[in-house]
Amino acid sequence: xxYANGARYKSGKQCIPGTRARVLDDIIGxxxxxxxxxxICLLLGPAGSGKSAIAHSIAGIFASLGRLxxxxxxxxxxxxxxxxxxxxxLARDLAHRDPxxxxxxxxxxxxxxxxxxxxxxxxxxxxxxxxxxxxxIVGHILLVIDALDECxxxxxxxFLKLLAGLKLPDNFRVFxxxxxxxxxxxxxxxxxx
Length: 193
Fold this sequence. Notes:
CATH topology: Rossmann fold
Radius of gyration: 16 Å
Number of helices: 8
Strand content: 5-15%
Order of helices and strands: HEHEHHHHEHEH
Distance between the termini: 32 Å
Oligomer: single chain
Number of domains: 1
């Protein structure tokens, strides 16, 4: 099954200790809220504003708490962080945390054509939709997606629609950073974030 080894967060890219404390605290508070306004937190800003450092810091904090479900950092031009690896990476990371998801994913990939499919709709339906109903993870789980604007390719529009409509268990939160590209703002305009 496909997996993006190079797309995970990196501790060396975190905020300098003592900086961005208020922003980090706000994101942590949202992620642990029992009744958040939304399960998606979208941090938009121009290039160089520190979004990636915040994403890597949040991922590191949640990893140290045992609450990081997965992280995926898009890098334009880096084939190891391409869009077609997102859903398989997310599914494998969650399967690593939850034996019921692992079992459901194991059933899904018995079909050899699914193991290496790059069709994001097939990946989404088989690796996420059909496995997440088996989730038994207790406690808040955070998924971190950094540099969504660097996700490129002909499937980007479809991916943004899937991501904006993502239905995960109530204890899951999704933290996303991006430049304020028009298609990203449009995709998430109907989502309460």
